[in-house]
Amino acid sequence: MQTLAILFLVSIPLVFILAWLLEYWHVCLMIYAGIVLLVVGAFFLLSVIIVATGHGSEVFEKTSITFNQIFLGGLVIIIIFGILALWKLLD
């Protein structure tokens, strides 16, 4: 789980470099933003369900991931892509 998260975070700058090199960089960023939002949304929904059912402590102890890490990571990614979207709209 942690390896997947690290690979996911490392892929963000690689996508920006690829998008910069491609002529259709905005399409590449929109597709990646959609994937990011799907992944973050899935983790956020899973976290809410686990916490709501009362089994959160056992699951989070095994994975060493906290609800706050998932929530803050999702917020950071949403803020980054929000800034990029505003920059694209104002450009």
How many distinct beta strands?
Answer: 0
Instruction: Provide the structure class.
Output: mainly alpha
Helix content: over 70%
What's the average pLDDT? 69
- Give the overall form: elongated
Number of domains: 1
Q: What summary fits the major beta sheet?
A: none
What is the N-to-C order of secondary-structure elements (H for helix, E for strand)?
HHHH
User: How many DSSP H or I helices?
Assistant: 4
Cα gyration radius (Å)? 15 Å
Distance between the termini: 38 Å
Poorly predicted residue ranges: none
Proportion in β-strands: under 5%
Question: Secondary-structure blueprint of this entry?
Answer:
Blueprint: H1 2-21, H2 25-53, H3 56-63, H4 67-90
Helix pairs in contact: 1-2, 2-4
What is the structure about, briefly put?
The chain has 91 residues and is mainly alpha-helical. The chain is built from four helices and no strands.
Structure characterization notes:
- The chain is mainly α.
- It is built from 4 helices and no strands.
- It has helices at about 1-20, 25-55, 55-65, 65-90.
- The N and C termini lie far apart (about 40 Å).
List keywords for this structure.
91 residues, mainly alpha
